[in-house]
Amino acid sequence: MTVCNTKELAEELGITQARISQMKSQGRFDGCFMVVRNKIEWDKEAAVKAYTEGNPLVSTSPTRKTSSELEIPTFNESRAKSEHFRAELARLDLEVKEDQLVEVSRVQREAFTSARAVRDALGNIPDRVSNQLAAESDPVVIHQTLTSEIRRALETLTDA
Asked: By CB neighbour count within 10 A (0-12 exposed, 13-18 middle, 19+ buried), where does 105 fall?
């Protein structure tokens, strides 16, 4: 049994002393502490066990790292990363300005517009040529008329 005070227990659990006091008054730490001369002495292992069992969101393995365990990059490493990403952003900005790089939404919008124009042009062919074809009996002339109308409709796709 390791004995500790409230402050040490709070650091171990990663919560505040006030939260420990709240949980103690709710009865979640019953049997984990003793009052000796108006001071609370905690059984550290029992309190940690009661906290982890009563709180399903808490992992059983300690995940809190001390400042010495953190892998903090040096100033020069951080500066190099920052400059690298600044250069990447500048490159992307330049490619956008030179029209080598465009937004996906713009491409989709323009593709939709040109596809709609082709669809409308192809859909209008029967209305335009039906009277001509009804009066024509020569298959070669009918074929040439349809071919030229379809070609004209598809040219709107290449112009877009």
From this structure: exposed
Q: Kindly write down the DSSP assignment for every residue of the chain, as one continuous string.
A: --EE-HHHHHHHHTS-HHHHHHHHHHTTTTTSEEEETTEEEEEHHHHHHHHHHH-TTS-SS--PPPTTTS-PPPHHHHHHHHHHHHHHHHHHHHHHHTTSS--HHHHHHHHHHHHHHHHHHHHHHHHHHHHHHHH---HHHHHHHHHHHHHHHHHHHHH-
CB 31 within 8 A of CB 64: no
* Look-up of token digits 């309190």: 47
| Minimum mean pLDDT range among 19-28, 42-51, 64-73 | 64-73
**Confidence at residue 144, expressed as pLDDT on a 0 to 100 scale:** 93
In the chain, % of residues over pLDDT 90? 24
Residue 34, strand partner residues: 41
Span 61-115, pLDDT tens digits:
556 677 677 788 889 999 999 999 999 999 999 988 888 888 899 899 998 998 8
